Amino acid sequence: MTDLxxxxxxxxxxxxPTASQTAPxxxxxxxxxxxxxxFGKLLIVMLGIAVFVILGMSASYRSYFNMTNxxxxxxxxxxRDATNKVAIISVAGxxxxxxxxxxxxxxxxxxxxxxxxxxxxxxxxxGTITGSDYLYHYLKELVKQRESGDKKFPIVVSMGSxxxxxxxxxxxxxxxxxxSIFAEPTTWTGSIGVIIPHYDISGLLKNWDVQNxxxxxGPLKQMGSPTKPMNAEEREVLQELVDLxxxxxxxxxxxxxPAFKESPKxxxxxxxxxxxxxxxxxxxxxxxxxxxIEAAIDRVAELSGHDLKDLRCVQYQKxxxxxxxxxxxxxxxxxxxxxxxVSLLNFTTPRAYYLYTGLPSLLTNTPLSR
Length: 370
Fold this sequence. Notes:
Blueprint: H1 6-13, H2 40-65, E1 72-78, E2 84-92, H3 101-111, E3 115-124, E4 126-128, H4 129-146, E5 155-164, H5 166-171, E6 181-183, E7 188-190, H6 202-207, H7 232-256, H8 258-262, H9 264-270, E8 275-277, H10 278-284, E9 289-290, H11 293-304, E10 311-317, H12 322-327, E11 337-338, H13 341-347, E12 353-355, E13 364-365
Parallel strand pairs: 2-3, 2-10, 3-5, 5-6, 5-7, 6-9
Antiparallel strand pairs: 1-10, 4-12, 7-8, 11-13
């Protein structure tokens, strides 16, 4: 038997497979193990939930043991490590009711024996008579409580862009202390007066064939209703209410501005409801100095008998939860306007205001000075 070439045998009986007949090679890649294994995504979600729960529990824990449970103190200026403090109480926006954030700031100062005086920072067009008088009363109570003997507890006013009407009413909490009211160069102030807004929409309702069919116990029960014209009797009654409230306003000003008590006519001449610039107000005796908040802080230090280097100036902010801080949730601003059902009802109710505007009750500045 002759030796055959193996390759020749394969070619004769079993041809070599072509490239298209050859099975493609299989490449198996070994995946890297996940950091959390098969349940990585689930663990990440559970971890996120746990973080939120812990933050919520932490906020509740701090709230439970927080004795102030109100405005939180924040450093403003002067000596950061000083014990004695000048407190800035802010009155911002329209004053609707008194028992709110401003009152909470006053209560916080009352409980803090380290506060030696207050800068009353007012940036407000005024508001309701009741709300303005409420805040004025408790500011005066604060001074009365903290003063003893020859020890003064000064309140010095720093006016912002506007300190008008009810805002000016509150400013009179400084008492008869000289050089205690500071207005910025661009401040508008004054607008001393009282207004009961009234809007007669009876003509519009007539066009829509809508009638006022209210049932009242007396002829003056619907006094000031916007659904009907005001008659002479109603106007006389409301005017008397305005005049009496106006007299009270001027008495408060005379208590805070003694010069007007000596010369009532001088007050009558400027208490026309007119708004004044800072320069005009200085000339008329409505303010004492033109200067910024730093000048008011300096004056508090002077009146309280403390050196600036031994004082820490603080202000107050609303308390926010840790969850809000984490999510970046923005709380409602002190200047946010809202229209709600209560505002619409107030719009139809005769109500007296110390306010520099003609449309007070429809727009509610919610946190503000409530």
